[in-house]
Design goal:
Shape: globular
Strand content: 35-45%
Order of helices and strands: HEEEEEEEEEEHEEEEEEHEEEEE
Helix content: 10-25%
Number of helices: 3
Length: 281
């Protein structure tokens, strides 16, 4: 009887997490499981512009600081004559891409979402990552929140430069936080850093330039680039770390990227990186 109860509970966990779902091309390495970035319409749909090889396998979407949505593949949408080239909610019905309908939950129009197979964060039928509950650094406005003084001091020591600007992008229920720092220019070299911290570790992605980070991003990165958090997934194994989805908005473009923590760094997975043309009309 005890064995029966245990098996029943285990089966219920698999059904709730989706970790029991396997496709014909399933592989045991979680890094091989599929995922792609897309963006939301204003009527609860999501488009993946890339020519993803097996679009029907994407059944879960993450976005808006860790929201989890169930999605269903609708089909491929061809570009219309009214397409203006922008990948935005305003041009959604005219752009080309894979269309998904959200079957549970509500999207935020024009935001980026990370669509995955239901077992993307699983291995051997068991969940290996937990999606953290995060919130914006400043819940009252679209501006960044205030970074703790101790974090500013820590980054100045680590980079040997004075911090000239900073912003709290997102914060978790515990000590997790995603921050941006701009540093003083030294010998013509500019630097800003994207930083993820928890209660014991610091992970950094540095952006150096002598001119502009992107064509429309010159000068003050804090003012010119607006970061949003898509999700944070924390591994259940301390030696693995985090997967972090972020959006970075500039005047004419928006990039979505998947970052992974390792050895004090935030490493971008270029297999998932996309950039959208979002210039105002």
């Amino acid at each position: 009887m005890k064995n029966f109860v245990f098996l029943l509970i285990a089966a219920m966990i698999f059904l709730m997490t989706g970790c029991n779902e396997k496709s014909e091309n399933s592989m045991p390495d979680i890094e091989s499981l599929g995922g792609a970035f897309g963006y939301a319409s204003d009527d609860n749909r999501i488009m993946v512009s890339d020519d993803y090889p097996n679009p029907k396998e994407l059944t879960t979407a993450y976005g808006n600081y860790g929201q989890t949505l169930s999605v269903e593949y609708v089909g491929w949408q061809e570009r219309t004559d009214d397409d203006d080239g922008r990948e935005t909610s305003f041009n959604f019905d005219n752009a080309q891409g894979h269309i998904y309908r959200v079957v549970s939950g509500q999207t935020k129009a024009n935001d980026g979402y990370f669509l995955t197979r239901s077992d993307y964060f699983c291995y051997d039928n068991e969940p290996k990552y937990d999606i953290l509950k995060m919130k914006p650094g400043n819940a009252d406005s679209n501006e960044y929140g205030k970074v703790p003084a101790k974090d500013i001091s820590k980054m100045e020591r680590r980079r040997g430069r004075k911090v000239t600007g900073s912003g709290l992008i997102a914060q978790g229920e515990n000590s997790e936080r995603l921050e941006i720092f701009q540093f003083e220019t030294i010998d013509g070299e500019m630097l800003y850093s994207l930083v993820f911290m928890d209660d014991k570790d610091v992970y950094i992605e540095d952006y150096y330039t002598n001119d502009c980070w992107r064509a429309e991003d010159c000068g003050n990165a804090i003012e010119r680039i607006k970061y949003d958090l898509i999700f944070v997934a924390k591994s259940r194994y301390s030696y693995v770390g985090y997967k972090i989805g972020v959006s970075s908005w500039a005047p004419e473009s928006c990039a979505h990227e998947l970052l992974e923590t390792a050895h004090g760094r935030l490493n971008r997975d270029d297999d998932y990186w996309i950039s959208r043309y979002v210039a105002p009309t």
